[in-house]
User: Fold these one by one.
Assistant:
Number 1:
Amino acid sequence: SAVISQKPSRDICQRGTSLTIQCQVDSQVTMMFWYRQQPGQSLTLIATANQGSEATYESGFVIDKFPISRPNLTFSTLTVSNMSPEDSSIYLCSVEDGSRGYTFGSGTRLTVV
Amino acid sequence: AQSVTQLDSQVPVFEEAPVELRCNYSSSVSVYLFWYVQYPNQGLQLLLKYLSGSTLVKGINGFEAEFNKSQTSFHLRKPSVHISDTAEYFCAVSERGYQKVTFGTGTKLQVIP
């Protein structure tokens, strides 16, 4: 199965700033997914990123707040912009891993103060 | 639209006892079903998945799940749990097309020595 390297693993940020999270996959994948896991809650899909096209955002998420880049088939970034304490969450990237389902990165634990 | 219900938010169980974590789904079309495990401060790991075929699915770490279409359930079971099974378990569903995955709210399994 694919191996995903996600970084940073955690960060503490000041409100009003932005943080860019990176995901590197060890194989080429068509689709990458970004999720948010708020404290004590389940995972919510933010957007789906295909290489060479704009990301598709789920209801409640907008590009200005969560811009995504997908420059090639092994890499993607998610930026959390103009952060507020409500953005404190774990952010995870995921790839469709053929017949194995979905593989997840280890997550980025973000705390906004 | 698809949805997943995990009926128990927390399940305490003694070591070496059996456990069942319940999951029910709702969808108007055929689905794929998954169980993921999240250990503290880690990402998600796929335990098992049902795509088609046999309704009894065996996964890693001695876990298994049974797909019951009439009851729209996909309960996770293990005959004898270990301390190392203490984690949060997420049931997930994806409609055919295999793109968007919807997660349940998770069940925290606490194994008591």
Number 2:
Amino acid sequence: GNSVTQMEGPVTLSEEAFLTINCTYTATGYPSLFWYVQYPGEGLQLLLKATKADDKGSNKGFEATYRKETTSFHLEKGSVQVSDSAVYFCALGGAQKLVFGQGTRLTINP
Amino acid sequence: DTAVSQTPKYLVTQMGNDKSIKCEQNLGHDTMYWYKQDSKKFLKIMFSYNNKELIINETVPNRFSPKSPDKAHLNLHINSLELGDSAVYFCASSQEGQGRGEQYFGPGTRLTVT
């Protein structure tokens, strides 16, 4: 079945550092790929998505490219801020449901 | 206006009790979901409904019974609560029902079973 493997956390960075959170997937068919973010005490919010190979999703300075050849959807941001501290989830959509990675807790120190 | 709302936000109860969590969405979406998030933050789908019809039941114990009175509401009733049911339960909705579109999540209900 479909599955998502995400870089284990926690990840701690200083403000303005470069961020990469790795995500790889296993899927049949042509799924959509998502990054969701969960701030403390809140539900998940969509951060970005890509629906087909070579698509790049971007939002709030974050980017991820749907790479079919490496089955990956790594999340990147050039310069993180303290307000980016949250838990990030990679997810695969298809077969009528979302399958999530295990989540990566990101902490940004000033 | 909150797009996806859940009540209650916190629920503390004893083993063996029966409890319900309610979810409402005002987005006009056709598909609604229940997810369970465990203490390690792992999220797993439990159920999905499309226009009041059960689509996915992800091998959840039959102590859990979802009910969708209309397409804007999806409630979750849990019988004979167990310690292992302690988790955060999220409701979500989407316009597209194949899993390929954005899902909108509620704020979660933190259930603690003592």
Number 3:
Amino acid sequence: DAGVIQSPRHEVTEMGQEVTLRCKPISGHNSLFWYRQTMMRGLELLIYFNNNVPIDDSGMPEDRFSAKMPNASFSTLKIQPSEPRDSAVYFCASSSQGGGREENIQYFGAGTRLSVL
Amino acid sequence: QKEVEQDPGPLSVPEGAIVSLNCTYSNSAFQYFMWYRQYSRKGPELLMYTYSSGNKEDGRFTAQVDKSSKYISLFIRDSQPSDSATYLCAMSKISGNTPLVFGKGTRLSVIA
């Protein structure tokens, strides 16, 4: 398997523009997580889905952020309008709900580095 | 106070040294403990995964969990320049496929 695939790898945009980040989880995984990493705050959860259903979005900063998972193989994270403080690396991770504890491991994509000017 | 505290370093050691990385946490509900390694401009990759208290060894890496002290450690023996990376501790309450709470990471440099 190719692992978790995120696109784009880098995004530079101007304040006020809409930004869409994309994620393809590992085939067969039914949990998907969006995290954001900054120097100040480290890696923090934004939202996660189980079986395509959003379970916890308490980490989403504000209404400018939205996430969808229309099917088991695709998710998007959208920021509209974007602001300079949204500049960060955004990671997507996926995992499976296996019967054994060792199966419940989160695998991360390479991330999208977002710069909002 | 953050739920998980981790010294950000940086930590610089000579090749062959034993490295000790640590995290403390405040929430006694955490049951699953992980260490991720993150190379520059890459995503985190799982290094070690432990449940509850005890030790786990995998090659040059040993993970320890002391729930009574709310303290976890990662030891790297015979450190190599290729171990130079940021090490993130992570933990969760229910199982590894529920949201993880991360430490901020410790940047390690192993000097040849």
Number 4:
Amino acid sequence: DAKTTQPTSMDCAEGRAANLPCNHSTISGNEYVYWYRQIHSQGPQYIIHGLKNNETNEMASLIITEDRKSSTLILPHATLRDTAVYYCIGRPTNFGNEKLTFGTGTRLTIIP
Amino acid sequence: GAVVSQHPSWVICKSGTSVKIECRSLDFQATTMFWYRQFPKQSLMLMATSNEGSKATYEQGVEKDKFLINHASLTLSTLTVTSAHPEDSSFYICSARDRQLGGNTIYFGEGSWLTVV
């Protein structure tokens, strides 16, 4: 799995867009970029994933650079409930690999 | 989306006793589940891979005789912490992938807090 690097912590004002960066310069062509978040004392929650193209779902948008060496998770209108630790993970595309390696993630705090 | 459930959510046990944690895939079958451990203010660390109908695969440094894993059906994996000690107190989390949906997303359980006193 590709090693990912994320800022340790970030703050964002409530109602604003939260932009969480992730560097994955060693990612290979067959690795997805996955984002999970973990709210305090809960299991990780899946947010979004992508391979090459930008992706959007009801929770967030994922912007992947053309060289795939970095990506940004965007929470368009952050709420207090978005306060959590956000993990960016590289994961091979072959369906046999379901093992995820978690880094330290970014602790996002939404400020009222 | 697919749901993975753990039970109990929290448990307190005495040193030297054993405690079992269950991980269930509620609306899908999972031939493989994963067990993680998380200490306070740290990231998740993979402990082992639970394989339905066969032996679990343990990560380096994880004692297989202390953390017994059983995956007897396609919807249930159990983790038993044997002869628990206070240093085993942690947040234990399982995960599984819903192959039936044809997707590639892994879902996590709510986690189980273990406190050994």
